[in-house]
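User: Please fill in residues for this 169-position structure.
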């Protein structure tokens, strides 16, 4: 049976942004046939922790995914970045995915221990907290996507495809 994977992205939040690179990446992933699992997309979430979290949690209960990969744009980063944890006030929740193993041998992918203290981290914390308190078995990571351009797009798409493949097998 094919694993169920939920992929999420945000809309833009600043006037100069024509699109959100995380959403652009998911648009491309939706058009590929390289991934052998059941993908569900929850795209262009509002840049609001509560609203975005509520929509993802509702989708988790409806879909019961095996894997959740939340994505956000990181304009200042150059590489695809997998977040190891999320913080809220003095509380830290680490993903139960072995992120070192997840990105092993992928060039141009990094691990971050700081999801940004913005909506991305708030959302990641909310989802990890929900999975933990509800004792759900879904594996979840948050991936920050840099600004996409002609020189980095192919590598980022290939690496992200590998992350989906590794998490769903």
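Assistant: Residues filled in for all 169 positions:
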């Amino acid at each position: 049976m094919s694993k169920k994977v939920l992929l999420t992205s945000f809309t833009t939040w600043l006037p100069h942004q024509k699109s959100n690179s995380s959403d652009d990446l998911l648009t491309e992933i939706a058009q590929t046939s390289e991934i052998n699992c059941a993908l569900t997309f929850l795209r262009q979430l509002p840049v609001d922790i509560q609203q975005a979290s509520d929509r993802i949690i509702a989708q988790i209960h409806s879909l019961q995914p095996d894997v959740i990969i939340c994505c956000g744009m990181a304009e200042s980063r150059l590489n695809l970045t997998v977040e190891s944890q999320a913080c809220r006030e003095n509380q830290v929740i680490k993903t139960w995915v072995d992120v070192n193993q997840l990105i092993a041998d992928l060039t141009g992918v990094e691990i971050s221990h700081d999801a940004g203290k913005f909506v991305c981290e708030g959302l990641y914390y909310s989802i990890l907290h929900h999975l933990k308190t509800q004792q759900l078995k879904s594996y979840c990571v948050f991936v920050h996507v840099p600004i996409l351009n002609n020189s980095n797009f192919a590598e980022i798409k290939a690496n992200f495809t590998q992350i989906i493949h590794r998490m769903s097998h």
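For context: The domain at 4-167 is CATH 3.40.630.20 (Aminopeptidase).
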